[in-house]
Amino acid sequence: MQGSANLNLMIKAARRAGRSLVKDFREVENLQVSMKGAGDFVSRADREAERIIKEDLRGARPSYGWLGEETGEEKGEDPTRRWIVDPLDGTTNFLHGLPHWAVSIALEHKGEIIAGVIFDPAKDEMFVAEKGQGAFMNDTRLRVSGRRNMIEAIFATGVPFGGRSTLPATLKDLARLMPMCAGVRRWGAAALDLAYVAAGRYDGFWERGLHPWDIAAGLVLVREAGGFVAPVRDGQGIFDSGALIAGNAELFKPFCAVLREGD
Ligand code: IPD
């Protein structure tokens, strides 16, 4: 894919942050004996990855705004453009030595996500998309799945942890959905869940209680791969509500219907 200058910048930043995270990931296993030690170490790794991405992106485009999981929001001179960044999506996996986490970088223009990069360094999978240019993984074009029957479909979600208020609604979703599909996966990295919908690995994904940096890059990936995204509750904003449904074209309607039934 012949990406724009901005996309190439995002890819480079994701790779550099990915290299730093891979080095830290190798250390994490040694630190498991002391959970506190490992937790602090991972927070540092996370912050360092955001520092690297910010240095690259804001260094090259100082006028753009910024929204990062670790450093929050900074307005730019150009109010129409901002980077939305999760330096380490799947932090709990990283902390536990599970190789399923990613760097997620999106570019927003006038409220719309126009480019997204999700990099999984452990598997060396680079998912990228730009509005109107299609979605790719390591140069292979992505298409959402073509499955038409709910009973053959695999969906992904995030099950709220640590006493989050969205747990009861999610458990009800699962009770309605699980009997009518081939399975529900919960792998712990929302950015990768969306990248996998774009790649046709999952037929759909939904989750409540997400932040813009968890999902921004994934939105453009799914759309550019021919899929659909919508808020769980019709009429709400995806970022405002943090509750998102994504899916292939064939199953999107019935999938939304099941999830909205109990909302
Ligand atoms: C988390 C992951 C997880 C999702 C959580 C997110 P983080 O992001 O995406 O899959 O269930 O809601 O907060 O904290 O690892 O960047």
Distance between the termini: 40 Å
Walk across the major sheet and give the strand order. 2-1-3-4-5-6-7-8
What name is given to the CATH topology of the largest domain? Fructose-1,6-Bisphosphatase, Chain A, domain 1
CATH class of the largest domain: Alpha Beta
CATH homologous superfamily descriptor of the largest domain: Fructose-1,6-Bisphosphatase, subunit A, domain 1
Contiguous helical run count: 8
Could you give a short account of the major beta sheet?
Answer: 8 strands, mixed
Q: Which word captures the global form?
A: globular
Low-pLDDT windows of residues: none
The protein's oligomeric status is single chain
The CATH architecture of the largest domain is 2-Layer Sandwich
- When the domains are counted, the total is 2
Count the E strands. 13
The percentage helix is 25-40%
Give the helix/strand class: alpha+beta
Beta percentage is 25-35%
Q: Can you give the mean pLDDT?
A: 94
- SSE string: HHEEEHEEEEEEHEHEHEHEH
